[in-house]
Amino acid sequence: MLPALAGMSHPLDTLDWPVRTERLLLRRAAPDDLDAVWAYRRLPEVYEWLGAAVPDYDAYRERYLRPERLASMLIIERGDRGIGHLILKIQDGWAQEDVADQARGVQGSLGWTLDPEFQGKGYAAEAVRALIGLCFGPLGLRRVIAECFADNEPSWRLMERLGMRREQHTVKESLHRTKGWLDGLTYALLAEEWPAGGRGTGATIR
Length: 206
Ligand SMILES: CC(C)(COP(=O)(O)OP(=O)(O)OC[C@H]1O[C@@H](n2cnc3c(N)ncnc32)[C@H](O)[C@@H]1OP(=O)(O)O)[C@@H](O)C(=O)NCCC(=O)NCCS
Known about the structure:
Blueprint: E1 19-20, E2 25-28, H1 34-41, H2 44-47, H3 57-64, H4 67-71, E3 73-78, E4 81-91, E5 107-114, H5 123-136, E6 143-149, H6 153-161, E7 165-176, E8 180-190
Parallel strand pairs: 5-6
Antiparallel strand pairs: 1-2, 2-3, 3-4, 4-5, 6-8, 7-8
The structure holds coenzyme A.
Coenzyme A is lined by residues 46, 49, 112-114, 119-125, 148, 152, 154-155, 158, 161.
């Protein structure tokens, strides 16, 4: 765990919110957001790509009301409307056992979902760019990654738009609930590869 992040329930707690981008506002999720998120995440064209299988509303609420889940979620707002959400999970880097302490909590795993009504307008790229800036800026992470099914072209195209590097293409390794065993992709980016160097997100660390 990075020293600045020790004792925090989630590293995102250390930042000042909301964070504004050119067209959007990012803020921490609250229990009141869950209904609006459910309205789009349950749509078949969205649900089919999501890893978390929560088939009904009650199961979904129970899962996402867990503090660690809610704490990792950011709401993307356009005007006064929630149009999607991001997830930031903090992970350990892989390390040899004797140096594993130095690899704790150094990596961010990113996730994203937009309400289909707001897709195709560059909002996901704008929001994720800001999140990556937070990861490499005030949060001090050294690497971010994102994963998707290879068939989820909008998702990996987003990663490429953001300048992430395709580092792994696994063959029929990822089981999809209706499509069977599919190829999987992992993209990554290092802090030193981030052109903005984490600046320009509008965020400050407490
Ligand atoms: C993955 C997902 C977030 C991508 O959303 P998206 O809207 O395609 O991504 P962006 O916000 O980067 O928008 C890019 C598109 O907006 C267009 N666009 C329009 N106006 C734009 C603007 N002002 N600036 C930038 N792009 C703009 C781009 O040309 C591009 O269109 P194209 O895909 O036809 O080339 C979305 O498809 C989604 O929520 N999918 C379902 C959930 C999911 O799969 N989650 C990930 C699981 S791994």
